UniProtKB/TrEMBL annotation:
Belongs to the AHA1 family. SUPFAM superfamilies: Bet v1-like. Residues 15-137 form the Activator of Hsp90 ATPase homologue 1/2-like C-terminal domain. Coiled coil: none annotated. The lineage of its organism: Bacteria, Pseudomonadati, Bacteroidota, Flavobacteriia, Flavobacteriales. It comes from the Bacteria. InterPro entries: ASHA1/2-like_C (IPR013538), START-like_dom_sf (IPR023393). This is Uncharacterized protein YndB with AHSA1/START domain. It comes from Flavobacterium endophyticum. Pfam families: AHSA1 (PF08327). CDD domains: SRPBCC_CalC_Aha1-like_4.
Amino acid sequence: MENPKQPITVAATVKAPIQKVWQSFTAPEHSVNWSFASDDWHAPEAENDLRTGGKFRTKMAAKDGSMSFDFVGVYTNVENHKKIEYKLGDGRFVSISFEDLGDSVTVTETFDPENTHPVEFQKAGWQAIMDNFKKYTETL
């Protein structure tokens, strides 16, 4: 059954040049530092083959060891410094655009919601991860 819900969008404007923003977003050694929604979670592992047809995996885990899951997908489109699109393991689609504003970059992420959690909960979680990304990248 197709998901009848509208896609969800989150965004952040990062005060850094596009090269730094792109590297922070895509390199596993950076993404493990920001890919979680709250301080009681972390991302202890990440792998990334950033190319159309390439796969990625980020392990997201509760710091107390009570729960973890792999966030996985396959890239359907990669345009250096501009756009990343992928299909998640559960079939949902995600699109990320990078708008270079010179001294900053607006990163906009649009994703298909899943059917387990309320849309507001999903949006808050993905926005929290985006906010972590912004904070981490600006202090690199």
